[in-house]
Amino acid sequence: MYSATEKALIASIWEKVAPHTEEWGGEALERLFAVFPQTKIYFKHMNTSPGSASIRVHGGKVMKAIGSAAGDVDNMVKALSSLSDLHAYNLMVDPVNFKLLSHCILVVLAVHLPSEFTSEAHLAFDKFLASVAAILSHKYR
Ligand code: HNI
User: Fold this and answer.
1) 62 alpha carbon – ligand 1 mean position (Å)
2) Number of folded domains that form the chain
């Protein structure tokens, strides 16, 4: 459950992210692959070197999916349902990796939004990303 304050914080952070989905999503993935190189195992078919165009494109897709959930936090399960199937049944991504990516996304937000990303916004967005991760992994069992 999200309070009205949390919803407002999530929406206002997302508003700032929306024009930069590819750039910031790509940066989050670059950090993921650099800081937690074991995550590259899922992307053998992709060029995971820093600055690669496919990282940017994929980062954009990930961020846009996050945006679809941020717009309606009370109905996230529905918005993420097909991605939940994809990650659980097709990709079989170990759920620990969602926490690692969430961490990288939070770092990117802190870098780009130094004044907006207050501790309250950090808390709300962390809670939101934890819900996204829980939804993407809930079909594993
Ligand atoms: Ni994820 C594909 C969203 C976490 C590995 N992923 C997608 C797509 C979206 C997406 C959107 C593209 C689907 C399509 O093309 O139809 N992924 C998300 C979101 C999160 C997430 C919102 C969490 C916040 N994915 C992860 C993690 C890993 C991961 C943590 C592994 C470390 N995802 C993948 C892989 C693909 C993928 C692999 C397929 C890529 C491809 O194009 O082949």
Assistant:
1) 6
2) 1
